[in-house]
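Retro notes, structure queue

What went well: the backlog is down to a handful. What didn't: a couple of records were mislabeled last round, so from now on we paste the full input next to the output in the thread. Example, using CRAL-TRIO domain-containing protein from Urochloa decumbens:
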Amino acid sequence: MAASCSFRSVVRAPPLSRSLLARSAVRCRSAATPGAGGAASTSKLVVEVKERLAREHPGLPTGRSGRDDDDMILWFLKDRKFSVDEAVSKLTKAIKWRQDFGVSELSEESVRGLYQTGKAYVHDSLDIYGRPVLVVVAAKHFPSTQDPVENEKLCAYLVEKAISRLPLGTENILGIFDLRGFRVENGDLQFLKFLIDVFYYYYPKRLGQVLFVDAPFVFQPMWQIVKPLLKSYASLVRFCDSETVRKEYFTEETVPPDFRS
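Corresponding output:
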């Protein structure tokens, strides 16, 4: 426990309070409106992006999460501060990745082999801030024996599942990395780079906070490598212990089974 406490001093970002979340949402909505035109101006930009995608990338799929998905286009416009050029560029990459990766075809059955290991799952309950919760159990991850492609498919499936559970008015999810029992053989820099790309390029701003729980000293070298790759996203990370997870993010009824005392 002493080792874990010492390492947690590396990053100690406080949890977001309900009032802070509410104020942030108001600021985001205010900043998200491009110019005085408000909703009308935003709708015009969505149409412009849609037309650009249809004209420049007609081979991209349509429909849900496709090149004519208004909600997805609006989300990427917000992410790119309403720059049409940047939104088109990022959307093209994201939609093409979804197409090549076969995201729409992923199901629990298609990832059953690794899903049954319990190495990662979407918790049945939301946290106290109303966010879906994605839990990763690092001690059950063995990159030397588990297929990296299957790991990536499981990751994409669970991110999709978590996002599909977003309540109305909630925009991001909570990620919990359970690092109890983490050893060198559980380390996987390649997968962590994939995870960073997933949330930066394909699901921007969908990750609201990340908890690294009970990180041992052996995890520190990996964190020193990964932290610069995260750039501004590193501010989302909080090192904490199991008790913090129980007391600050869940009620007694909603805490994940792995964290019940």
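Agreed that this is the format going forward. Reviewer comment attached to the example: Residues 1-14, 16-32 have pLDDT under 50 and may be disordered.
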